[in-house]
Design goal:
Layout (H helix, E strand, L loop, with lengths): L1 H16 L2 E9 L2 E24 L6 H21 L4 H24 L5 E27 L2 E7 L5 E9 L1
Antiparallel strand pairs: 1-5, 2-3, 3-4
Helix pairs in contact: 2-3
Length: 165
């Protein structure tokens, strides 16, 4: 028990009188080695082109409207031409012919496109390589090897030293 008390009191006493010393030291570099790093960069760019794609849907609304207007105009003209019981036949015949003519005229106004042009794009990457050169500076301080990297060879390395006792 006495030994334990003596050990604890020595530990406490050493804490009271312990010191921390801090200083900066310049250490001469023993050797500088050139180190090459290859860095690959990917730069995005857009590649675009136009292509024709088939059109599947077609709006026939204007053809229908042309047929209705043509049929009505043909029926009116046919009604003017005929007489008696032939008047009805002329009206029906004029309406049929007017419908066909109106539809053909409406279709002639716009051709049915089979394909349409579409702009397509995709992102591609251009790779470029750069070589980075740096220097590995090696020195010894207080029996330990230290390394500091820099953009040029160094003559000295500055080291912060802390001693505790």
């Amino acid at each position: 028990m006495k030994r334990m008390a003596l050990f604890i009191s020595l530990c406490l006493a050493s804490q009271l009188f312990g010191e921390v010393v801090h200083f900066v030291k310049r250490v001469r570099v023993q050797k500088s080695v050139e180190v090459h790093h290859i860095v690959t960069k990917k730069v995005p760019y857009e590649e675009c082109w136009e292509e024709e794609i088939p059109v599947e849907e077609y709006d026939e609304g204007s053809d229908t409207l042309g047929a209705i207007i043509g049929g009505a105009a043909g029926g009116i003209l046919g009604h003017q031409v005929g007489g008696g019981s032939g008047k009805t036949a002329a009206t029906v015949g004029g309406a049929i012919i007017g419908t066909l003519v109106g539809k053909n005229l409406a279709e002639r106004g716009h051709e049915r496109p089979g394909y349409k042009r579409v702009r397509r794009c995709r992102t591609r990457y251009k790779e470029s390589e750069d070589t980075i050169v740096e220097y590995k500076n090696i020195a010894k301080v207080m029996g330990r090897r230290i390394v500091k990297y820099s953009d040029r060879p160094l003559d000295f390395i500055t080291v912060d030293v802390t001693l505790e006792y």
